[in-house]
Amino acid sequence: MVEVRNAENAQSYTTYMLRCADASYYVGHTNAAELERKLTQHHAGTLDEYTATRQPVELVWSAGFPDQDSAFAAERRLKGWSRAKREALIAGDQELLRQLVDRAPVSRMMTETESGQHARAIARASQPVVVLVRPQLGENIGKAARAMLNFGLTEIRLVEPRDGWPNPSAGPAAAGANIVLEQATVFGTLAEAVADCANVYATTVRRRDVTKPVVTPEQAAREIHGSAGRSALVFGPERSGLETDDVALARAIITVPINPEFASLNLAQAVILCAYEWSKHVALAQPPRDDVLAPAPQEELEGMLAQLEAMLEPRGYYTPHSRAVATRRTLRSILTKPAWNHLEVRTFRGVLTTLGRTPRQD
Question: 208 falls in which pLDDT band (50, 70, 90)?
Fold first, then answer.
């Protein structure tokens, strides 16, 4: 386990990375004062999160940040990184990290204040707010928050939540989307919740006695990104959806083409459809992929080819001798086409070594 860095600087928030029993990684952030308690919960498996079924876990990296926006920006950046980048960070291999990231070392890159400023600017400039009208279950609020954060939305507003707010059931269901729940605000009416929004979209699949423009989530996302002023995506209660008076407050209705014989979406599904379409117009991280390693040096390829030829020669592969040169050339052409990296060369040579052994007599 590594020590928690920057603890002596009394940073307000900490971003951390855990290695799980299945060799996968979990990245999160928390208030610095709560870090030890959070880690204890991860170790005990009491958090209803990714780590709960991947015990034991080990803290392998952490860094302090002056505010929550900066810590959250670091968390999101690391979640988009491949395994190779994460392991270079954990090992402190700045040279390898430079090669993989092709920019400044992560320790500096993520502690600069502009990361937090950038996150706040995005949040205020173009993010729509998500408004849940009379939500019934804390679990559904948490799941909606999780769906929002998956695609970069962080501001949620609640109108008359049935069981009050805060709701202890929301946190576990949010699965780590704490930044959304912590910033949630509660309003007495929908009109109050959208008072500062110039563009209000009501989500519904049912016909109403109100004439409004009807758009898809994709069309609404384009309009939001192209419009001045704040926008709001309004979702109704789980059981019945928005009332006619709620829809009347909106400028437009969002609906989706859906199976008419089974047109019921749960709250989180509805939120994620709209959030995903909005996210397609901003620079979120793509699903991580393994970094492509550089091709192996020619010396390693020559060693692999020599090993293979030494195994083929005594078995008469290069007969007739008049074709030996052409056969070797063809074999070399086949084996050099894939641009093998050093791991692939080593693996293939291991295969050849195994094939060259005398079979065991069991």
Answer: low
Q: Is the pTM of this model over 0.85?
A: no
β-bridge partners, 254 = 203, 215
Q: Could you give the CA distance from residue 301 to residue 264 in angstroms, rounded to a whole number?
A: 58
Among candidates 225, 222, 224, 203, which has minimal Cα distance to 214?
203
Please say whether the beta carbons of 56 and 1 come within 8 A.
no
Specify the pLDDT at position 261.
83
CATH architecture of 7-122: 3-Layer(aba) Sandwich (3.40)
Domain 126-279 superfamily per CATH = SPOUT methyltransferase, trefoil knot domain (3.40.1280.10)
pLDDT of 207 reads: 55
Domain edges within the chain = 7-122, 126-279, 298-356
- What phi and psi values does residue 276 have, to the nearest 5 degrees? -65, -45
Segment 350-362, tens digit of pLDDT = 888 888 888 777 6
Burial class (CB in 10 A: 0-12, 13-18, 19+), 286: exposed
Question: Is residue 4 scored above 90 in pLDDT?
Answer: no
Closest CA to 212 of 176, 246, 186: 246
Give the strand pairing for 197-203 and 230-235: parallel
Contact criterion met (CB below 8 Å) for 26 and 18:
yes
Report which of residues 336 and 311 the model is more confident about: 311
